[in-house]
Specification:
This protein is about 50% helix and about 20% strand. It has about 160 residues and is α+β, with helices and mostly antiparallel strands. It has a four-stranded antiparallel β-sheet.
Amino acid sequence: MELEIIEKRENPLLNRTEVKFRVKHQGEKTPERELVKSDLAEMLKVNKSLVIIDYIRPSFGMAISSGYAKIYKSIEDAKKIEPSYILKRNKFGEVKEEKTEEVKEETKEEKESGQETTEEKEEKEVQKEGKEEEKKTETTEGKTEETKEEEMKEEEKSGNP
């Protein structure tokens, strides 16, 4: 994989550098964002976490892809300006992984102490709701059967077949 910078432009209003690049990937698939991101960060001597790749578009019939990236001065600037889907696509700010680890630790502690976890509580509530719905359907089915019997009795009395 060969990375070539076509155009580099400073944008002082948005505190970022905008880069257009071309990637030659002979005999390989279109390179992944993370790989291009790390190569761009290395070439421009910036932190990889400040690089956001907007797009990488492969050329039809050739092993060349062109793309557009933005290198911000700080993480806060990027979060203010970039839409959330671009941030997710670039795995920007991977704090979510840490939160899930904290939740896992909490559930382990709760299980050891014998307390119910929030997941167990939710499961019990769902089961209760399911039982209530079953009771409702049973009562409605019972009523319909009773009403059918009453209708048949009325028809017999009136003499209509």
